[in-house]
UniProtKB/TrEMBL annotation:
Biological process according to GO: cell adhesion
UniProt xrefs under Pfam families: Ig_3 (PF13927)
InterPro entries membership: ICAM_VCAM (IPR047012), Ig-like_dom (IPR007110), Ig-like_dom_sf (IPR036179), Ig-like_fold (IPR013783)
Residues annotated as transmembrane: 209-229
Native source organism of the sequence: Astatotilapia calliptera (Eastern happy)
Signal sequence, renumbered to the chain: 1-18
Domain Ig-like intervals: 13-92, 119-200
Keyword Signal: yes
Entry's Gene Ontology molecular function annotations: integrin binding
Coiled-coil segments: none
PANTHER family for this protein: INTERCELLULAR ADHESION MOLECULE, INTERCELLULAR ADHESION MOLECULE 5
Keyword hit for Transmembrane: yes
Name of this chain's protein: Ig-like domain-containing protein
Length: 235
């Protein structure tokens, strides 16, 4: 008889389920609820929260009722991009003695976390390259959720050359012949980031050199003209 009563008072939950599941934005706090329906004895219940292969927390309940009751556990977390795609679930178990008599724990289904975050360049800093460029690609690759979309802008002089390039691809392929600033933006619903690639003219054919050549040409022309006039005058 005693044995019968003892058995009757142990009841594994009818269900263990998660609630409040939605995409979360990086940096924000969010809560997931685990509902354990009809468990006894509730004071021997512990609820474990799992994320991947880690146990995040466990909760027990102060409950004197020997008959089945329903309990909820709420996990509060701050959304981090590293948790995007991570599996989270809760597990209900009864800590009964002797241990051999413990029923198997009951798990909720796993929820896959979706964390939204703004694009972040894989290589963050702006870049500078000198012509003639040894480097043949400019990379704007960024991580982000949703996946970022890209857009390139070229210096005026380069527009004709790159008109066939896909301005919405993360990588711009050279050769780079035109100095100026090449701008790439990566954007998604969470934000837009911009990276600048400055392509410098080869040394020696800068504006200084061009001006010097132009002045020399003008001086030469003047001397020539004067020379012609002089010779004409002489005649
Ligand atoms: C469920 O989510 C809403 C909105 O994010 C929040 O206000 C509420 O507290 C959450 N409920 C639980 C039980 O975590
Ligand atoms: C339930 O837990 C209490 C301690 O909290 C323990 O004394 C008791 O033996 C447990 N019940 C069973 C049936 O194992
Ligand atoms: C890149 O250059 C822009 C404009 O000059 C500047 O605002 C930004 O801070 C720079 N970014 C980095 C990572 O240095
Ligand atoms: C950058 O993106 C391109 C196109 O999506 C991809 O082929 C390449 O492997 C990426 N590079 C890096 C370093 O992630």
């Amino acid at each position: 008889m005693f044995f019968f009563i003892f058995i009757a008072w142990i009841e594994m939950p009818d269900s263990v389920s998660l609630k409040n599941l939605s995409a979360v934005v990086e940096g924000r706090q969010f809560a997931i609820q685990c509902d354990i329906v009809n468990v006894a004895p509730a004071r021997n219940l512990s609820v474990l929260w799992h994320k991947g292969n880690k146990i995040l927390s466990s909760q027990t309940f102060d409950e004197s009722s020997p008959s089945p009751v329903s309990k909820s556990s709420v996990l509060t977390l701050t959304a981090h991009r590293d948790d995007d795609g991570a599996e989270i679930w809760c597990e209900a178990k009864l800590n009964l003695w002797p241990e051999e008599q413990r029923p198997l724990p009951v798990r909720s289904e796993a929820h896959i976390l979706t964390v939204l975050y703004q694009p972040t360049f894989i290589s963050a800093s702006n870049e500078t390259l000198d012509l003639p460029a040894g480097k043949n690609i400019l990379s704007c690759n960024a991580t982000g959720n949703p996946l970022p979309s890209y857009h390139w802008q070229f210096p005026q002089a380069a527009q004709e050359t790159y008109k066939d390039q896909d301005v919405n691809y993360p990588i711009l392929t050279g050769p780079f012949e035109f100095p100026g600033v090449y701008t790439c933006t990566a954007s998604n619903s969470q934000g837009t980031v911009t990276k600048y690639f400055t392509v410098n003219k080869p040394p020696g054919i800068g504006p200084g050199a061009i001006a010097a050549i132009a002045i020399a040409a003008i001086v030469f022309a003047i001397i020539c003209t004067l020379g012609v006039i002089h010779r004409k005058c002489k005649r």
